[in-house]
Amino acid sequence: MESSSNQTQFDATVESHSKSGNITNIENVDMVEDFFEPGCYKMLEELVEGFDESFNRTTQVWIPKVADIKVKPYAGQRFKDIDSCFNFYTEYGRHSGFNVRKSSHKVRNGIIVTKYLVYQKEGTHETVMSKNSASKIESSHSSSTVSKEVRRRKTVTKKCGCSAKIILKYIGSDSPDKYVISCFIDGHNHLLASESGKEFLRANRTMTAFQRHFLLNAVKSNIGAFRAHTMYKSLFGLYSDVGPTAVDFQNWMRDIKVYIGKHDACMLLQKFKNKQETSDGWFFYEFQTDSNGHLTRLFWADIRGRKNYEVFGDVVSFDATYRTNKYGMVFVPFIGIDNHWKSCTFASALLNIFPRPPKCIITDQCPAMKVAISKIFPGSVHRYCMWHIIQKFPGKVGPVFWAKSGFMDKLNKFIWSSQLTVAEFEQGWNSVLNEFGLSEHIWLKDIYAMRKSWIPAFFRDKPMGALLRTTSRSESTNFYFNHFVQKGDTLSEFYMCYESAIDKEIHEIKKLNDGDTCVPQCVTEKQIEKHATHQYTRTIFYKVQKQIKSSCFHISLASQPTVFDGVSKYVVRDKSFDEKYFEVELNFQKNDVDYSCKLFTRVGYLCRHCFYILGLWGVERIPHQYLSTRWMRNAEKRFSKLKFGNEIENSNGAIIRDT
After folding, report:
1. Range 440-448 contact pairs with CB under 8 angstroms and sequence separation of 24 or more
2. Pairwise CA distance, residues 604 & 544, whole Å
3. What is the model's pTM?
C-alpha cells in the first residue's frame, strides 16, 4: 500500500510540474531522493521522451539530442551576421523542442559587439500576486482607500530562469564571418517539447511565403483566415503538415491591418498613381478630402471600364446604398449591359470622366441624385427604378386590397407594357383607378405626376430605353461584390478584393467571347437568320432568332400595302399581342425600315414585324444600319477607339479637391 501511495504521489507531482514546464520547483535534491523509491529515476527518464539519456539528477539539466549533429551549435562557430546565427539556433531549437528569442546586446562605436540569444522563457518571472501586493502597499502609504486590482491577461508563458543560451562576439570586419560563438550553454532546466508537441513551437508555426500568398488570395475571395486555414489543411493533409495554427493565420492578417493603420488611404492613392503612370494615363482617378485631409470621396475607371463604356455606355445604372468598408464609405459601381446581355462595370464614380454622357441613367428616387445627375449629365435621360416604386404599392393602398382585389393585376398591364403609347397608358391608368375608386388617392396622384420618369410608355422612343427598367442589375452587382469584400475591410483590402472581383468578371467575358466562335443552330430556312448567326453574340442571337421565328408564325398582313413616294406602308396583325395592329414602312431602295413598335430604338435589334416585311421583299441580310455595334461579337475590341500607346491623351491626371 505504501508503494502504491508513493507511486500516486509521484504521478501527481510529475504531472503538475510537467504542465508548468518547470522541474526546478523541486529545489531540494535530497528530498527528491527520499521521496522516490528505487526505480523511479528510470521511470522519470522514460517520461522525458526525446532527450539525452545522461540526465543529471543533481543539476536537473536536460541536454537535447538531435539526429543530425550538424544542426547543433558549438563554441567557436562563426557566422556572417547575427541573423544567420539566430536562424541557425532557431533551427536547432525546432529539432530539439524549445523556442529561441533575441535578448540584450552591447554596442560599441555603433556596432553590436555582444549579442545574447536565449531560450524563450529565460529570466525570472514576477507573479501577479507580488505585483498586486506591491501596488497595495504603495497605495496604503499614499491613500487610505484600497485601489482596484489590475486585471491582467492570463497566460501560461512564464519565465523559468533557464540559462541555455548563445553569446555572440564581434571579431571584426576583415573576415567575411564577423561573429563567433564565444559561449554556448546547451543545458535546460525544464522539460522540452515532446515529439507530438514540437509542431506547436513558434519556429514550426512561422508562416511561409507561400502560406502568406495563399491567405492573401483567400482574402481576395472573401474567405476569412480561419476558413483559409481549414482549406489549406484539406489541401496538404494533416494539421502537422500545415505548421501555423488558425490563430497564427488570424494574427498575421491582424498584423497586416495594424501595419496599414493610418496610411490606408495614402497607400491606395499611391497605388492608383502607379497604375496611372504605367497605363500612360488611361487609368483615371479622382478624389476629395475634407479640411483635416481625410479622404471623403474616391473614384476610378480603368482602361477596360472606359472601353466598355465607349461601346456599351448608352444606358447606365448605379445604386448609392452599398457600404463595403470599415469607414462606412459608399461604394457606387456604374453598371451597364454588354453584348452578351451581361452586366459590366464601367467605373466607380459619379463624374463626367467619359468622352460622352450616357443616353439613359437609372437610379432610385433619391432627390439628391436627381439634382446631381441633372448637373453632371444634363443631356441624359434620368429614369427611376420601377421595382422600388412598385414595392411601395402594398403599403400605400393597403396589403389586403393590393393582394385580393385584382387591382394590381389590371394596373400592371398598363404599367409594365412597352408596346403601349403614352395615350394608351394614361387612358388605361385612369380607367383602372376609376374602377377601384382610387382617383383621388394622394400617393397614386404623386407617382402619376412623375410618370415620365418611370413608366415604359414614355421611354419607347428613347434610344436603348428598354434595356434597364429597374436597378436590379446594380443590386445584383452589389451582391456579386459582397462575395469578395467585407464591411470591416480597409481601403487597401477593399481594392484588392475589388480587383479580384473584376478579374473574375473579365474571365467570364472571355469565356463568353470564346463561345461565340461556335455558330448556333438555325430554326428556319431564312438566309437572314443565317446572316444573324455571324453578326451577334450568342445571347443576342437567340433574342433575334425569337423575333425571326415569330415573324414566320405570328405575323400576318391586315390589309393591302399603300405606296407613296417610294415608301411602302404595311399594317400587320400580331397574334402575340392579342391581335394588335402595327405599322411598318419600308423604303426598299435605301433598305430603310420604320416601325410603330419601336423595338430597335428601345433595345437595338429589329422586331418581328420588320423581319416579316423584309421577308416579303426577299431581303437576306440585316441592313447594316440596323446592326447595333453594341450587340456584335467582340464589340469592345472591334469598335472601341481607345488604345494603349502614344495615342492616349494624358490630360486625365489626378485631380485633388479640398472641400
Report:
1. 441/396, 441/397, 443/392, 443/396, 443/397, 444/396, 444/397, 447/389
2. 10
3. 0.56
Q: Which tens digit of pLDDT belongs to each residue from 407-441?
A: 888 998 899 888 888 999 999 999 999 999 998 99
At how many degrees (to 10) do helices 209-220 and 225-236 cross?
120
Is the per-residue pLDDT at 597 higher than 50? yes
Q: How far is CA 60 from the centre of its chain?
A: 55
Give the DSSP per-residue string, 412-449.
HHHHS-SSS-HHHHHHHHHHHHHHTT-TT-HHHHHHHH
- Which residue intervals of 450-537 are DSSP H helices? 472-482, 491-515, 527-533
Give 324 or 180, the one with higher predicted confidence: 180
309 Cβ contact partners less than 8 Å away, ≥ 6 residues apart:
301, 334, 336, 346, 347, 354
Rounded to whole angstroms, how far apart are CA atoms 28 and 62? 18
Is pLDDT above 70 for 302? yes
Instruction: State the residue for C-alpha cell 444573324.
Output: 532
Give the separation between CA 560 and CA 578, rounded to whole angstroms.
21
Q: Give SS3 for 111.
A: strand
Three cell numbers written together for 264: 490606408
Whole-angstrom distance, CA of residue 292 vs CA of residue 382: 35
Question: Beta strands 360-363 and 315-317: pairing type?
Answer: parallel
Instruction: Report residue 380 as a C-alpha cell.
Output: 441624359
Work out the pLDDT band at 546, boundaries 50, 70, 90: very high
**pLDDT for residue 156:** 57
Residue 613: closest CA among 572, 562, 563: 572
Angle at 623 between CA 527 and CA 613, to 5 degrees: 65
59-117 pLDDT, tens digit each:
668 888 888 888 899 999 999 999 999 999 988 988 888 889 999 999 998 899 999 99
